[in-house]
Amino acid sequence: MKLITAKDISTLKFSELFQDAVRYLEADLGRWQEFKKSSRHAVHFPHGVFELMPVADGAHYTYKYVNAHPSNPEHGKLSIVALGMLADVQSGYPQLVADMTLLTAVRTAAMSAIAAKHLARTDSSVFGIIGCGAQSEFQVYAMRQLFPPTEIRYFDRDAEAMEKFERNLAHSGITLTRCKNADEVVRTADIITTCICEKAKVRLFAYDAVKGRDVFINAIGGDCPGKTELDPEILRNARIVVEFYEQTKKEGEIQNLAGETACDEMWEIVQGKKAGRTDADRIIVFDSVGFALADFSMLRMLHERGIGVDVALLPEPHNPKNLFALFR
Amino acid sequence: MKLITAKDISTLKFSELFQDAVRYLEADLGRWQEFKKSSRHAVHFPHGVFELMPVADGAHYTYKYVNAHPSNPEHGKLSIVALGMLADVQSGYPQLVADMTLLTAVRTAAMSAIAAKHLARTDSSVFGIIGCGAQSEFQVYAMRQLFPPTEIRYFDRDAEAMEKFERNLAHSGITLTRCKNADEVVRTADIITTCICEKAKVRLFAYDAVKGRDVFINAIGGDCPGKTELDPEILRNARIVVEFYEQTKKEGEIQNLAGETACDEMWEIVQGKKAGRTDADRIIVFDSVGFALADFSMLRMLHERGIGVDVALLPEPHNPKNLFALFR
């Protein structure tokens, strides 16, 4: 079994890693029907959530453990850490255990890139982002692979987070426009990514701020019951795309809409069963909560790269029915 | 974060490990109401199952990953391997990842011991076991801590498994009676443990073989939809005790009974809210499927022992909101 640490991953060449992430994820969305899928399992506390995200195809079973503790950064800790496991379906034996903290940010950005490719206007050039936390630069990176942005507009309640964001993008050649609030961010943005950490039903900006415009809203922060970012009026006036409806209905922005919501699932668009952006579309919301398949793709990528160190975690009795003998 | 291998665990003194396992598990059953509980998550394939078993109290969140692949031993592999994780509830950070293959056998035996203490006749002396696989000697060990057995009666379709079982118990001083079938095992047994691996609805022995006798049936092998070991007629004529009804109804022997089944949960007996065996009880079945709390107890025990090696699995950015910086 391989143990793959965050250091093993962070020393990979990022541009290749990201390209691979998109490639593996697109390939897996392309064979969506082959997977055994379910909503993730969540244990909620007032201050944070603990999630398990399993999925399997005929060759591999994977799960990711991930938390979300919005106040962790106040204590010098990451809001979100994660670890993943990949097992061989034939035997059930784990083949790798890996840090998934970095790859959670990478796969979320890869999914955003796939969504934007299909759902944003091809002439998008102003990128807005609300929330300048750990995922923000990954999101900017994803969009830059698709569109040459002329301007990035951004806002975070935490001024230090904005300063960090600015330092990271100082040499990007893109105009950086620090905004006073979310409304100001979205006013002229073509692509809007919402990624705040607060666990509450907030309305980052009013429907009026985007009304009638052909914007793509990449809503990735609302991902938990009781944690949403968008004015429901926006949803009522948008085409909505999700990862896996059954899970998103409980966790995504659409939890605020009564009854069932008409949505496309991203795999339908990747497979060409549903159209991407058409002339008839105005606001399109990708109500992204994070689905197990994206983690599967990353774990499959790690497995095929063969990185990490071998560890003998499991017992290896001479006779598999003589487990007890190991204790003597 | 600690990484705890099977070797780290197998080098512990078994008698102390088992005593501790019972002690931790009894303590946790004693505060059952403090836990956030749910049925485990399972992904089924024709040849095996993949399970995730999460649970949390106010201090720790744990999960166990475990498979069950009955035909693995034909390829020199264990039917069941497992790994577990314990995280700090305050931060969500993993504190240990451990092999749970050995401790799955240990905790199952510890749970059997707790059940037998409350539900078997105190003068039990003949122990029957059907299935001489990886868990069988752990089960015998558990019962020997409570009762001085005069005889062990056993059967397995696999003669080599019985030979291994006999070698392991050769110096126990207990009469070993190899039986030709399960009926012969149970005929004079006071405590009957069923632990075969086959994924099917089998009837190991007929109700008539135990009818009217004060036996304790420790049914641990039927633990999956479509995988049961007992004649439902036995269940209709027995007092039934389970770990967590919501899960057992789907996975245990009682899946074969229509509608809801009147059961006691083990914690109720441990806490004295329900009686253990009374004079009115004849057959008592512990319909044990394996519940996440027992794994929690083992992971808590490992955590408090502080064994294993430190590994830096997760990223440790200087600024928790500057995850992207780790890639440069």
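Chain A touches chain B through 76 residues (CB under 8 Å).
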